[in-house]
Design a protein that fits this description.
Keywords: Signal. This is LTXXQ motif family protein. The chain contains 5 helices and no strands. It is mainly alpha-helical. The longest helix has 35 residues. It is elongated, with a radius of gyration of 17 Å.
Length: 165
Amino acid sequence: MKNSITAAFIALAVAVPFAAVAQDKAAPAAAPAPSMLSSAEMRARIQSDKKGIIQRNLPLTEKEAKGFWPLYEQFEKEIAGPQAQYNRAVIDYINAGSNITDANAKRIVEQVLKAQDDESRLRRSQFPKLLKVLPATKAARYMQLENKMRSVLLYETASAIPLVP
């Protein structure tokens, strides 16, 4: 039962930010500065308002926005596949618990590595597309924002997953 609850928590912690991407919410008026938030608070903010975080931290002209947002939406759809693969592997590991076999551990690690490779390939292919609609400094800033948000989510996930026994 504990493994199922933990698995559900991990799946939600990793998957929800990507399902919530299309939501467009205004920032709370008295929200603390991002540097003052804990990683758990940052994770919650990313999950609830990823697109809003990008909008507030990536100043775009009207022309840039017209080219950028369709690329952003397409990228979010494409990246959902590798992220779902990663989530399934994490859930498989948690469900195996202390009964994980060598064969299962190998399969899960291979799934995680493949998902990471697929995600990396998609991120790498995104940058040249961005350069067609944004100046390099804004494209780089967007990539930094994505990397920072993904790092918070990965940290929170990793801290909740026990090591293989």
